[in-house]
Design a protein that fits this description.
The complex is a heterodimer of chains A (about 800) and B (about 110). By secondary structure, chain A is α/β, with parallel strands linked by helices. Chain A has 26 helices and 41 strands. In chain A, helix 11 packs across helix 13, helix 14 (about 490-500) runs parallel beside helix 16 and helix 21 (about 725-740) crosses helix 24 (about 770-785). Helix content of chain B is about 5%, strand content about 40%. Classes of the chains: A alpha/beta (about 800), B mainly beta (about 110). The complex binds siroheme, flavin-adenine dinucleotide, iron/sulfur cluster (SF4) and FE2/S2 (inorganic) cluster.
């Protein structure tokens, strides 16, 4: 019989535990997870690269929704557990869901510590723990105003670097005399401070925060000495506390963290705890490596292997700020029984210090050059007696015996059990043997199979060196991401070659570009179809069999196989005649749900495929055309009421929106394209989170682009200001065409813009009238072929086969 | 028991790299036509969450389900790649383009 396993918290520790458990004891448990955060399990460590813009949220997801489905795991997103009833063996969430358990795992992580100063609850004060915090910071950063980060530790500095990179004026307040004092000695802390100051970040050490000042919203920080530092955003990164409230309430033994034994068992035999909330042998942890060790142990116990025990080990710390090399490990306090070896190279900005006790390394700080980190870690872990190499130790592995080694040779010289990935505890031997054993050739594959470099990524260089070492010429780190398994070419290469070689059909592309499969797959075919439609609008015959079902039948497929139908409602404006026609269709076809969409129009859901042409016929008679709510193409242009009605309106935003929609409907784009026009900066049409948006102002039209409000949330960038409606239309259309011609399939404008650069886009669209006009003309040309209402085409008989069964059998015969 | 072959139409009724449905009292059957002009029939019900396979994209001898992109082999009915599951295949005869499916298996599909 399957037992019920309930997990509270869906962070990195329990995520890893489940991976082990599914491997060790598949099917043994029916797993339910409650997570206060409304999302799947992601790599929290990588929030800093998301903040700095080096990664996207999607890239740091560890387990996507599909993973939970695949493993039959129920995940309650956005459910905080508020009570554990140990007698009844149940947990209850804040939304009132109660679930019983045979085994319970508490993995509630930590909560950021908030300085108990006046003003701490003011708007504009945030912490740095989860994606919501990052999003709040990104939003605040758009103002390009002043930010203060309280705390000069790992988190604080990563936040500061990220915010500075996003254009904010950042000051870091640190209470101790030097930065990262828990991981760095004063000398390294000083070098770090100099480096950050060189990047424009202001740093105030020995700074005691007295109060946060402001009037409901943050205006600044007051220090002990009376100084006031102005700020519109305050990030508190002064430490974390294990999140133990729930365990305390449930009457479990709690110290600093939830007390567990070496098998991760709490004082209640049915309950385990792991992660940052757990305390083993008096220690709580704040880096993932030991948490992953806990995960391994907890999974073993849940799988019935009760001998597994947690072993403590020191984890090296690295700062994930691009361009700053910093490594710190173990204990480096001064002491009578300790000796140290120091190397300074001021011109190169390098500082290295190794702390020894009885000829064995107990601590290491490396700044400016960290390549030997893995080697020092290895010596420390093995407690190697270093007296033989004492003279040259500090110069690193390359200098031990014989000639200096190049970096590659240094990696080659590492022993098989040298740890390469600290986060996941993966050693060199494991990586090399997996590469050869499984025939891996890409970094992604190595990450998937070994987990090395899959968490904080700071060992990526080492892993790549190992790959080069193992695979020789077969590994090319700069290799492009191919479109799909059917080709080695990237999207960009394919787009370029389609034009250069004048390829005008899918079979021609596959033949000329040496596709590896006979007729592609569901990834490349829709992409190729789009590229060909875009590049040869007059010549290419659209291949409907290479379109996703929604685009093939011009309606959105639903989970039960029925379809939804969304007619255009230009600019969100309708009238009694249209509404009556919709009402009649709903009655006639007994349509189960009528819903107002987020795109300012009406969705009719639950229509049988066979009924679609008849529904369209009736809608068509009332003047409706397809809203293309299914298309990688122009979707909606949302508008507000504008100057015709609104007392603040500066221009006719409704009219402009309708004009744009009528001009652009029917066009296919790399990914969906959504627009909005707001009549004034109050922005009621939400134009500043759209692919392209317009904010009307007295002096004209401010054109925005590259916003997002779906999987990602991102405010738009300003393209520029134009004076007339005609100019606004020309600029918008030209921008859309530039995007159509350059983006990769399924790449929204904001991702494309990030890749090609905002400046480049502004240069071509705002700054180069000839280019702009050429883009505009090409769009207009392609519209000649695109602006055909697909619904009326289907009503008049096109693709009849799609909407009728091939045969209807069995009803008579089956009875015989 | 004799197999009872039932005519369902001609292969030309199905678009190349496409599919059509056959309605039966036990549910829909998806009949596919590959780029190489081969025909296959399977239950129109994805092993994952019941998606209508007939609405997917057909490539080689496989179809990608329209709901969550599982790839199903038309020959074996099995999910390809990392996914696990299988859909029932239906015996199909192709006589110069005239297509027939077997009724017994239809009855079994009803269980
Ligand atoms: C109907 C509607 C929800 C509603 O009831 O309001 C809707 C429904 C769907 N959305 Fe949406 N989205 C709807 C407005 C939005 C909006 C709001 C807006 O447009 O102002 C957003 C956020 C804005 C944006 O796009 O950035 C939105 C962001 C998404 C996303 C995330 C896209 C992204 O790149 O981040 C998806 C997933 C995707 O496209 O891959 C999605 C996908 C879907 C799909 C197509 C899911 C699917 O693949 O089947 C849903 C189709 C349901 C159906 O058959 O009708 N929908 N969706 C809205 C239709 C608007 C319309 O009139 O056409
Ligand atoms: C910005 C940042 C950078 C970092 N960088 C590094 C690094 O470089 N190297 C490194 O090793 N570590 C780093 N860390 C630390 C690392 O991310 C954490 O140690 C690790 O994520 C902790 O995992 P966990 O599973 O214990 O808890 P978490 O990942 O915090 O997960 C706990 C989850 O439980 C949920 N939860 C809490 N209470 C409840 C409840 N009552 N009911 C339901 N759900 C609940 C929370 O919402 C949360 O999602 C970093 C952390 C941050 C924030
Ligand atoms: S309509 Fe949009 S938000 Fe709602 S479930 Fe579907 S995809 Fe998700
Ligand atoms: S139902 Fe087919 S992939 Fe989900």
């Amino acid at each position: 019989m399957t037992e019920k396993l309930v997990i509270i918290g869906n962070g990195m520790a329990p995520g890893r535990m489940l991976e082990h458990l599914l491997e060790k004891a598949p099917g043994r448990y029916q797993v339910t997870i409650f997570n206060a955060e409304p999302r799947v399990n992601y790599d929290r460590i990588m929030l800093s690269p998301v903040l700095s813009g080096e990664k996207e949220y999607e890239e740091i997801i560890i387990h996507g929704d599909g993973w939970y489905i695949k493993h039959g795991i129920t995940l309650y997103k956005g459910h905080r557990i508020v009570a554990i009833d140990r007698n009844a063996k149940t947990v209850t969430s804040d939304h009132g869901v109660t679930e019983s358990y045979d085994k319970l795992v508490i993995a509630t992580g930590s909560v950021p510590f908030i300085l108990p100063v006046p003003g701490k609850d003011m708007r504009g004060v945030i912490t740095y723990r989860d994606l919501d915090d990052v999003q709040a910071m990104l939003l605040a950063a758009q103002s390009r105003e002043k930010a203060v980060v309280i705390g000069g530790g790992l988190l604080g500095l990563e936040a500061a670097a990220g915010l500075a990179g996003r254009g904010m004026d950042v000051t870091v307040l640190h209470v101790m005399p030097t930065l990262m004092d828990r991981q760095l000695d004063p000398a390294a802390g000083y070098l770090l401070q100099k480096e950050l100051e060189g990047r424009g970040i202001k740093i105030v050490c020995k700074a005691n925060t007295k109060a946060i000042v402001g009037d409901g919203r943050v205006e600044g920080i007051e220090l002990d000495d009376g100084r006031i530092i102005p700020a519109t955003l305050v990030v508190m990164a002064v430490g974390i506390r294990p999140s133990v409230g729930l365990a305390v309430q449930a009457g479990l033994a709690v110290n600093r963290g939830i007390v567990v034994d070496h098998g991760m068992r709490t004082s209640d035999g049915s309950i385990l705890a792991l992660g940052e909330c757990a305390e083993v042998s008096g220690q709580v942890y704040g880096l993932v490596a030991p948490l992953y060790e806990m995960a391994r142990v907890a999974a073993s116990h849940l799988a019935g292997e009760t001998t597994a025990a947690f072993v403590h080990s020191d984890t090296p710390t690295k700062l994930k700020v691009t361009g700053i090399e910093l490594f710190s490990l173990g204990d480096f306090a001064d002491g009578d029984d300790r000796e140290e070896i120091v190397l300074r190279d001021a011109s190169a900005g390098v500082y290295k210090r190794v702390v020894l006790k009885g000829n064995r390394i107990i601590g290491t700080v490396l700044y400016g050059e960290t390549a030997d980190g893995a080697w020092f870690n290895d010596l420390k872990k093995k407690e190697t007696d270093i007296s033989q190499m004492r003279e040259t130790l500090i110069f690193g592995q390359a200098y031990q015996g014989g000639a200096p080694l190049d970096p590659m040779a240094a990696v080659a010289a590492l022993p098989d059990d040298a740890e390469i990935c600290g986060c996941n505890g993966v050693c060199k031997g494991k990586i090399v043997s997996t590469i050869t054993g499984k025939g891996l050739t890409s970094l992604d594959e190595v990450r998937a199979h070994t987990k090395a470099s899959a968490s904080c990524g700071s060992c990526t260089g080492l892993v790549e060196q190992l790959m080069t070492l193992t695979l020789g010429e077969n590994y090319n780190p700069a290799a492009v991401q191919p479109m799909c398994g059917c080709t080695d070419l990237s999207h960009d290469d394919v787009r370029r070659l389609i034009k250069a070689k004048k390829l005008k059909t899918i079979p021609a592309v596959m033949q000329e570009l040496q596709w590896k499969t006979s007729c592609g797959c569901a990834k490349c075919r829709p992409a190729l179809n789009y590229y060909l439609v875009c590049d040869w609008p007059d010549e290419y015959a659209d291949d409907y069999q290479s379109r996703y079902i929604n685009e093939r039948v011009h309606a959105n497929i639903q989970k039960d196989g029925t379809y939804s139908v969304v007619p255009r409602m230009w600019g969100g404006v309708t009238n009694a005649h249209e509404l009556r026609a919709i009402a009649d269709v709903v009655d006639k076809f007994e349509i189960p749900l009528v819903k107002v969409t987020g795109g300012q129009r009406i969705d009719l859901l639950g229509i049988e495929k066979e009924d679609l042409p008849a529904v369209w016929e009736d809608l068509g008679k009332a003047g409706f055309v397809s809203g293309q709510a299914y298309a990688k193409g122009l979707r909606t242009v949302k508008t507000c009421v504008g100057s015709d009605w609104c007392r603040f309106g500066t221009q006719d935003s409704t009219g402009l929106g309708i004009r744009i929609e009528k001009f652009m409907w029917g066009s296919w784009t790399p990914a969906k394209l959504k627009l909005a026009v707001s009549g004034c900066p109050r922005n009621c049409a939400e134009a500043t989170c759209k692919d392209i948006g317009v904010i009307c102002v007295d002096s004209g039209f401010e054109i925005h682009f590259a916003g997002a409000a779906g999987l990602d949330i991102k405010g738009t960038e300003v393209l520029g200001l134009v004076r007339t409606e005609d100019e606004a239309l020309e600029h918008i259309v030209a921008l859309a065409q530039m995007y159509r011609e350059q983006a990769r399939y399924l790449e929204r404008i904001y991702k494309w813009a990030k890749r090609v650069g905002l400046e480049e886009i502004r240069r071509q669209i705002m700054g180069d009238a000839v280019k702009r006009k050429a883009y505009y003309d090409r769009f207009v040309f392609s519209q000649k072929f695109a602006q055909v209402d697909p619904w009326s085409e289907r009503v008049s008989g096109k693709d009849k086969h799609e909407f009728r069964p091939m045969a209807t059998i069995g009803y008579g015969e089956a009875a015989e | 028991m004799d197999t009872n072959w039932i005519a369902i139409g001609n292969i030309a009724d199905i678009p190349l790299r496409g599919a059509r449905c056959v309605k039966t009292p036990q549910g829909k059957i998806a009949v596919f036509r590959t780029a190489e002009n081969e025909a296959f029939a399977v239950e129109d019900h994805c092993p994952h969450k019941g998606g209508p396979l007939s609405q997917g994209i057909v490539h080689a001898r496989a179809v990608t389900c329209p709901l969550h992109n599982w790839v199903i082999s038309l020959e074996t009915g099995k999910a390809l790649g990392a996914d696990e599951g299988a859909v029932k295949t239906i015996p199909l005869r192709n006589e110069d383009g005239a297509l027939f499916i077997a009724l017994e298996s239809l009855m079994m599909a009803a269980e």
